[in-house]
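Holo prediction. Input below; ligand is nicotinamide-adenine-dinucleotide.
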Amino acid sequence: MDRLSHWIGGKLVPGESGRSGPVYNPATGEQTHEVDFASVPEVDLAVETAREAFTSWRRTSLSKRADIMFRIRETVHEHRADIARQITDQHGKVLSDAMGEVARGLENIEFATGLPNLLKGGFTEQASTGVDVYSIRQPLGVVAGVTPFNFPAMVPMWMFANAIACGNTFVLKPSEKDPGASLYVAELLKEAGLPDGVLNIVQGDKVVVDRLLTHPDVEAVSFVGSTPIARYIYSTGTANGKRVQALGGAKNHMVVLPDADIEMAADAAVSAAYGSAGERCMAISVAVAVGDAADRLVEAIKTRLPEVKIGHGLDPESEMGPLVTREHRDKVAGYLDSAREQGATIVEDGRQLGLYRESEGFFLGVSLIDHVSTDMDAYKDEIFGPVLEVMRVDTYDEALRLVNDNPYGNGTAIFTRDGGAARAFQFDVQAGMVGVNVPIPVPVGYYSFGGWKDSLFGDTHMYGPEGINFYTRGKVVTERWPDPGTSSVDLGFPRTR
Ligand code: NAD
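Structure of the complex:
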């Protein structure tokens, strides 16, 4: 059994804690690796290594750091197919989707290559007589990232690209379910010339995360994962004096107005609900059909479902792969029973899929539930699987209220031909990312990503300009130079005039 270990100081460091966990190939159900879980001393070693590397990394000139970021971009781009393969092997998503994940991660590295420009400060000449004022942004020190299983390469890139470009050193704790891709990326960064100790990886579970949250030398923590853990990370990290951004779960609604292009809306709903087997924080999980859009939309979605090709992620024919673990697959399937018992209509039950019954892989077919209401468990919980729910409302106002009353506020979308309705929606809707006839409005790398309400704890969104702010702190310098004859003792509060 292959072991996956830690990456500290630019090399693989085998775990010594005696604790570990299994990593599966979800398409076959086989355990392929055992991943080491770090102990507190192993986490401390990674933080200490990062702290030592910080001393010289923050002194490295911007042009040299930018040069390394460019080389990282080239190396990751060159090996993007290998990274995607690692993702498919351990996460299960189809290879084309994994390639898309790497491409979106690369956007963040590309953004970070602009660091000399991004870190420019401001300067005010002659703020007072002979006095100039300037502002700069400096790195924090050692920063940590804790990431989810569903984007094992992209989400770490959301964090470390800006963090290291700004001059910080980084300790990553990837998901224990699919840690292979980030280890491989760490090797690529070394190959690209990143100094040892600037990026470190400790594998593991809550023990590791708790140590990072309390370690006195960790200045900031970025987290992406489910809402209960995000809330915990935020409260524990901030109570320990750290800067924290913690992105949580989602329940993304797509509102379909009666005037929408129903064929386009159905294509979008199927793509956004079932892509990556619904294991995306920006997946559409609820279609809110307004008025007479409902029957037409459900019919149009239903006709598309038999066409979705489900299979092994390495099969180029496959459009949707398995779920990440057997337990998660079974939990997702359980919502089909509870929804039926609580009064919904199961239009398509993914358990009818041959692969669900006959394969050892963690497959579940596409599932469609109609007549869902807010009191059902299937609505209240984030299902995180290939299940699309349809809710029927009479008016636009009802649809908006439904979206706004939901505790999550990650992404949402509206489908309509009415520009005024779309504008009203983006103005009033309580969510951090909004699509107009776009079902998965993940911001490009030069904007920032983040939800509202229970989808994000903290003040700053992730990556893009807000990422630069998160990983730096401001300093303002007020300076004057000796000018004979202008100096005197003055006990008053400094004035500028
Ligand atoms: P998760 O919350 O179970 O795990 C995320 C990370 O936290 C992992 O590294 C895990 O090891 C760690 N962790 C788990 N339990 C912990 C605990 N008790 N204490 C400390 N650390 C703990 O999430 P997941 O199942 O890996 O990922 C899926 C979730 O992530 C979904 O809820 C999804 O919506 C969310 N997600 C959100 C975004 C976003 O941008 N908002 C993006 C991707 C995924």
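The chain has a mean pLDDT of 97. That is the main takeaway for now.
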